Prior knowledge:
Layout: H1 2-6, H2 13-28, H3 38-60, H4 72-96, H5 101-120, H6 128-149, H7 157-171, H8 187-199, H9 203-217, H10 219-226, H11 232-244, H12 246-253, H13 257-277, H14 282-296, H15 300-322, H16 344-360, E1 362-363, E2 366-367, H17 368-382, H18 398-401, H19 408-435, H20 443-461, H21 476-497, H22 500-520, H23 542-554, E3 569-571, H24 575-581, E4 590-592, E5 605-609, H25 611-614, E6 617-620, E7 626-629, H26 633-636, E8 641-646, E9 650-655
Parallel strand pairs: 3-4, 3-5
Antiparallel strand pairs: 1-2, 5-9, 6-7, 8-9
Helix pairs in contact: 2-3, 3-19, 3-21, 4-5, 4-6, 5-6, 5-11, 5-22, 6-9, 6-11, 6-12, 7-8, 8-9, 10-11, 10-13, 11-21, 12-21, 13-14, 13-15, 13-20, 14-16, 15-16, 15-20, 19-21, 19-22, 20-21
Amino acid sequence: MYSRLSELRPLRLDTVAAIVGLVLALALLPLRFFASQLYLETVPLILGTACVLYLVSLYQGANSTSLPTLPSGVAMALPSIVLAGLSALVALTVIQGARTPLFFGVASVLGTLVIGQILFVNDRELHPGILLLQIVAFAFVFRFTALYATPGYIGIDIWTHTELTQAILDEGSVGGISHDKHYASPFYHLLVASSSVLYDVSLRTALYLSVGIAMPLSVLLVYATANLLVSARWATLATALFALASHVSMWGMHLIPTSLGLVFFLAMVYSLIRVMRIEYTIRDFALLVLFSVAVILTHQVSTFIMLVLLAAAFLAQIVFEIDPLGLTRVDTSVFRSKKPVNLIGLVVFNFGLTIFVWSLTPYGDQSFLATVMSFFSQTIEESAGFLNIASDSGDADPDEAAQAATTLLDQVVPYVDALGFLFLLGVTFVGCLYVVHRRRAEQSVFTLLLAAAFMLVFVLGLPMFGIRNFIPTRWFAFLFAPMAILGAIGLRTMVRGLEPRIVVSVLLIFVLVYPGAMILAVESNSENPIFDDHHEQLAYNEAELAAVDSIGELTGSQTGSEIREDQRIHTDHPYQTLFWRTGAYPRSGIGTATVPDGGVADHEYTVYRSTQSTDAVYFTDADGNGRIEQIDQPQLCRPDQATVYTNGEVTMCAAGPGSG
Length: 660
């Protein structure tokens, strides 16, 4: 049956896939009436549009008319304009003391100029090296200006990892974190600690000189990977799409093990595609094994994502070995025909090593593997169900925020946050349709296609069933790697297949919207959100940092067992996390304040900061649900409370003798 099916020449897999995708998009449209969720409303439209554009490109055939290109003088001047603009971004940050809306506006224009060069410069004046220089320089400036303008760190988890790294330095060995789950995956902490000793600098500076520098440089791995599949123009485009992506920028500023895990993941993707595209040697395969082990020893979530990639590669191998649809008849003018690489040994080794390491990793009262399996089983039993969209009050995910939208701006902001991802998703769908053509199918591109599909299931699919155990927000940056490559292939497909006027319209919309959408997304500006009434600020000023240390000293830095319920300190989220993550106050002794609508908090000890009256912070309501709220100082620090600490911006209040 397989042999007869593979000889059915008229069967066009890409055409069938496009028609199936269009039908699926139409079938998914009614789901918006059963659940209010951003991706339920937008992904079917994106999928349907991508399928229609691809089918139109097949109907119109090859595009023989050359597209308009930039004049030579403009093409030669643009690199200098971009580099001058990047210098202006640095100057703006120094002068204004923060990355302001003006900064992000200029950055959006510069991103548009970079992608515009890639798409509209003619072949003679296309210089990949100069374009890559602009992309890497943009990545450095965009990230390091945020790090420069932030007194402490950006993000929440980073404070815990700093404490763990300090424990390694104090102990002189990894035994300093033997109580923590990172004990079995300590590469990040060892790298930062050793950098601090080697350079004789603080942990903060060591972090920026190690992981901070590695993050923007790692985008070159996307170029190296894409260049194994497509020409330099489109490989450069894939690099730009990845470098500008919101979540990629976030992990370049919130520098935690996820960041280093992403670097090693990109190196592994390059090594994996390389062994599939060349006549590899033992050295090439050894590098693949080395990078996979590095991921395992760096971060658990990154490890699971890597295993998903390996599963996709192994499935691609099986498909091409069985070959039910004649996929081995590859057009060598598109991809070089090559026998599928046998990955069974690599897959077994990595799965085995992961299970072994996770079995030895402490997490709670048992191993990391046992705890994770327990949490997952509990979720399946108690909360999983179709369209049972899980939510997290402390999460600012755009799809969840859309559910609580009230004003016009409330409704628009979640779509602004997701717009860049949706644009990239659309061109990725087109790229996927292109590579499933049996004449273009090859193990490497099928690996990227299957990896993107599997990862989208974890990012978009499982949360719709109430399953968020795999921390889907951590997956986006990893997902953007195969999406950027497939997206570049998708744009190339439309350029070659669509009528020129349609091509120019599509490219102009993409060039004008994608960079700005990614830069305006909350992940790209979490240290100083553009929409500060809708997204919490994940960075603190000098007064807020000093207050945490002072309050810790004032209270005697008690242990959790010494604190009674009536001694718990309450403040907003995320500020409350800073107390226990820095060790100033135990986790059991700090919590998010409950502030009823229009009412006052009823807590013995509270901490007010001026940000609570001006920006978006989280409090809980009377039912215990988290919500973004702006309050006045008397709502948290009541008149009947005594002020025990203040520095002008942060005030700690305690119940007075006559209160209650």
